[in-house]
Amino acid sequence: xxVLLLNLNMVVAQTLEFSPHxxxxxxxxxxxxxxxxxxxxxxxxxxxxxxxxxxLVENYLxxxxxxxxxxPRYLFHLQxxxxxxxxxxxxxxxxxxxxxxxxxxxYLQSSIARSKFNEQWSAAVEMRKAFLLLEENYALFPAFxxxxxxxxxxxxxxxxxxxxxxxxxxxxxxxxxVAEGRTMLKTALLSKESLPYQNILRMEALFYLSFVELNxxxxxxxxxxxxxxxxxxxxxxxxxxxxxxxxxxxxGQNDAAFQTLSSRKTLPSEIPFYYLDYLDAEAHLRQLxxxxxxxxxxxxxxxxxxxxxxxxxxxxAWIALLNKDTASYHEQMNALxxxxxxxxxxxxxxxxxxLRNDLPSIELLKARLLFDGGYYVRCQEVLNQIGxxxxxxxxxxxxxxxxxxxxx
Length: 408
Fold this sequence. Notes:
Largest sheet: none
Shape: elongated
Low-confidence stretches: none
Structural class: mainly alpha
Mean pLDDT: 92
Radius of gyration: 24 Å
Number of strands: 0
């Protein structure tokens, strides 16, 4: 009876709280610092073994590893730990507003990770679980700020589904709109609450807002407007550095992206973030800098995930073409056809280009790259040069010249 009562007391006493150790652990996880995360988790487990925040911190770290490395073994590891982590957190009292939020966070992260690997059905099921938990938590604790991040992201995703498929989300008891979701994320981003975990909320809200603006909407200005919310210290966080540089490149601010990417630091304890090599290569290529070749090559040599590999191979072929090595261009584009195709649009376009077997105009390619980098004066100079021999261009080249001139 004594043992039973003691065990019951342990179950009742389990809690979730943002202690100083777990705040440090979260900040380290968001910065992809594995050793530092485990260090703070170990300190918390020793000092306060009843606090069940460490399993959630570790889930964040595992999720970000899946998100940036895209390797099936990391997805398997995340999924293998999921049920145990949820079961542990379920021991916490329902009176704690962190409980449903924490479990919903695990389901949401699992959903996003699964979608990276085309496990769409499982991803949808877990997205619904996260949505319902966060809605329940909002009903119970409407002033609880962390709810805004998960709910905001989910409202945007649900609201982005085309109207002819909205009956599906209604059937799943889900609702949401893009405007409501953006408002929730911005509320978390701009909050002036003096919470011990306020910086964690700000970083997470800023990352998700940047991800949403870059991937779901065509409005470049909305993405550019987010740059004012980045602090100088954010470039020390690989996730935020990636998001900031991506926005700068999307909005034709290539020199600013160069400056951002030059701030990156590679620490032995960090999860390798090879996509930063790809971004760096893109920034160099838009300047017509041949150093891009080395960076694309490094990305392909080390990144074992799926996305942007086909596009990186295409860009290496472009560099050969810019060097007037047409034989290497054709060789590399033919090799590209045998690669596994990623899900991102850049990879889809690269494969279509390879299958067409066309030889792009070198000067028009230069104009395209310079335009994408925001180097409009240099782009105009290239187009002026092309225009002097307009009558000698092929019909396809005339069409592209006219398009690029109009866009400029």
